[in-house]
Amino acid sequence: MAFGKFKDKSKPNKAKVFIGGEEKVVRVKLPRGREVIGIIAQRCGGSRMLVSCMDGKTRNCKVPGRKRRGLWLREGDAIIVEPWEFDDDKGEVLFK
After folding, report:
1. Is the pLDDT at 14 greater than 60, yes or no?
2. Of 24, 47, 71, 74, which one has the fewest beta carbons inside 10 Å?
3. To the nearest whole percent, how much of the chain has pLDDT over 90?
4. What are the distances in angstroms from CA 43 to CA 24, 51, 56, 74?
5. Which domain holds residue 57?
6. 3-class SS string, the chain
7. pTM here?
8. pLDDT of residue 66
C-alpha cells in the first residue's frame, strides 16, 4: 500500500523554537472552599494514593471514576484535593 505517498505539506517537519528570557503569564487554578493543595507522596494501587496536604495532614485520596482516564498522576505531582465531609483523613482528587 502507498500510505506514505501523500504527505501533508502544510505541516512543516521542524520543531518550534521558543526564545528564552521572556516572561510568560501562567493561569493557575486555586483551591476554593474546603479544597486544599497537596503533593502525591505514594501511589497505593488502583486509583488510590497518599497525599501530603498543605494543612499538615496526610490523606488517602482517590481519583473519581469520571476523571480516572483523563488524569495521569505520578509521585511528586501537585494536585487539588477535596477532603471528605465525614472523614478528614480521606479525600478526592479534583485537579492536577
Report:
1. no
2. 24
3. 52
4. 33, 9, 19, 8
5. 33-96
6. CCHHHCCCCCCCCCCCCCCCCCCCCCCCCCCCCCCEEEEEEEEEECCEEEEEECCCCEEEEECCHHHCCCCCCCCCCEEEEEECCCCCCEEEEEEC
7. 0.70
8. 75
**What sign has the CA pseudo-torsion 25, 27, 30, 36?**
negative
Domain count, the chain: 1
pLDDT of residue 75: 93
CB 93 within 8 A of CB 83: no
Place of cell 478528614: 88
Please report whether residue 94 resides in a domain.
yes
